[in-house]
Task: structure prediction
Amino acid sequence: MNTPLPRVNVPSMVVRDEIFQVRSLITHPMDTGLRRDEQGKIIPRKIINNFTCRYNGEIVFKTELYEAVAANPYIEFYVRARDSGTLEYIWEEDGGAIFTLQSTLTVT
Result:
């Protein structure tokens, strides 16, 4: 399997108290443990099971994902701009792997 590739789309500059959109996508097969490979062996379950977004260290969005979520999970949500700072995005996979990204937000 290729290494999951996380991506986000968020404005770099917003006005104070503006509600802005955050769009995230991670390339991931989201194997459920129910499929078989070409040799008939079960492909073990390996899914992204948690996604968290922190804004200057405070959790502003968190969700749990399950087997029914399609490959390459896309998550869209909205955040109110308070202060300039960092948005941190964290995807957690079965088995403990963690994938992270950060973006800087300037509030005017």
In short: The first strand starts at residue 5 and ends at 9. The two ends are 42 Å apart (CA to CA). Strands lie at 5-9, 13-14, 19-27, 48-55, 58-64, 74-80, 85-93, 98-107. The mean pLDDT is 94.
